[in-house]
Design a protein that fits this description.
Elements (H helix, E strand, L loop, with lengths): L8 H13 L34 H7 L13 E6 L15 E9 L2 E9 L8 H11 L7 E3 L2 E5 L3 E8 L2 E8 H19 L1 E4 L4 E4 L13 E4 L2 H6 L3 E2 L5
Parallel strand pairs: 9-11
Antiparallel strand pairs: 1-2, 2-3, 3-7, 4-5, 5-6, 6-7, 8-9, 8-10
Amino acid sequence: MNRPTQFPLSKIILLSLFVLFGSAGAPSVIAQQCSVKANDIANASELRGFHLGMTFDEVKARVPQVRFGHADQIGLTKTSINPSYDPRFDQASFADVRTISLDFLDGKLTTLWIGFENSFKWPTIEEFTAGVGGAWRLPASWSPKRNGKQIRCDGFTVFVSMIAGGPSVRLSDNAADELIATRREEAVAAEAVVIGDTKTKLYYSADCGALDTVAPLNRISFKDKEEAEKEGYKLAKACE
């Protein structure tokens, strides 16, 4: 009859300690959270004097050459500058910068995109993320996204990618992105529902101010303008 294998007490204790603590020194698989705020990097030299939250006047003071258009139906205003192609810009302060795109929501800068030439000090995605990681004190918890890498911090997101052979960086305000998405959904919903006037055979979008002139008893709803036009209704001029 075979006896059970006997292990010395010391080996049993060592085995127990290994099970309990043996993996304690292994690298953590949990990505470190980024607690950096947009204001913390507002003066970063790589951003060339721009930062999230700037007003039109503040951007104009930085680059007098910039021009702003009208805001769209959800409050977005977009513009861009091309320092490398425009001799009016101070080439020294915009060294290695090809294009800068600026998106404003309700008059505040909510997305900043900077495209660099391939002569920039960090010419690849790996070098760029490592470089800004150290300069902006970002944790090494970048995640892949499309053709680049992204890190979500406290209130804003940084996305790095390669465009036209050079690195680019985009900073976006997280709350603003959510608000834009909500407004776009509301705009689509408003356009999808139209109200017809049975008396005049005109139809109005739900957000058209002239709709208030239509008596409730004369109103009829359509799921979209195509349905209204199929029934013989025409768009009211006040809504064009």
